[in-house]
Amino acid sequence: MNSDKLYRAHLQFIGKVIAICTHDIRNHLAIIRESTGLIMDTLEFSRSKLQGIEISKPLNNIDKQALKSSSFLALLSSFCHRLDHESSVFSINQLIDELLTLLNRNLIQREIEVAKDYSENIQPIEGHPAILQFLLFCIIEKIENKGALQVITTDSNTNIQIILKYEQGLKDGSNDLMICTEALIEEACSVVSAQVKIGPKEYVLTLNKAKGGKT
Amino acid sequence: MSKKILIVDDEDEFGSTLAERLLIRDYDAKAVYDVEKAMIEIRQSPPDIVLLDLRMPGGFGMSTIKAIKEISPKTKILMITGHGSQQNVKDALENGAEGFMIKPINIEELLDKIETLYNQSQAINP
What we know:
Chain A is an alpha+beta fold.
């Protein structure tokens, strides 16, 4: 990593993602706990008080939430393992999906509705996936709450583009974390060999296959 | 008369299951899944206690606490959240919430807190 500032900002980003995930997992566990509690209630309370309660509902809740937690932890594990090696081979679409899923709770709270339009045939590339996720996170952080965000990926012989189109404005100067400064975005771009262009209501991130890594 | 409890949580499986567990225990419990519906419900029929998720789409908990207290000053607010920040606990209590619990919750502990808050509200407004 190029500078202490980028290193610190990246650590803050990881902290933020883990905080969002643990919040989500606590919610899954809370539903599991209430559902098992409701099943135990059915054993403890009299039949008259239990009228209208279907046992299949809490059982379905437990099953669904355990599955949610399990897929979530798999993504979190993959996210953390991206730090094992500074440079590695990764799929752009999977990388974006992983980040968006981990940030889902935060995006819901910010009332940002995400739509994805991925090019299906993008070959895996070699590069710095952890910093690329940080870069995407910074751009998403800059977008104002309440509105739609469209994430598009395209592929050509020389470049891969990640386009983030949004209908709302950009936050005025600062952001919640204060880590996603223009200077850090520029530095992160340089690490992942990307160029960022800010158009009207869109960020276009161009990754040069030859520089950023080989397909 | 049953104690009226309103659960405000965007995790509908959590809210509805907890409401059923409270109904079994003779509380008049209802769950709503967004802040707007919560405000309508509180205006129409002020609850004794609101169990409020800290972070909800369309309303961060602190502003929701103030809004509830404006509509129904007697209503006690117990924050329930999966968000683990101690600062949030402090902020919630400073902004008018009467208690705080972290998910996943223990039902016995919740019932104790509900009873304590209800008794407090009755002592002030019998």
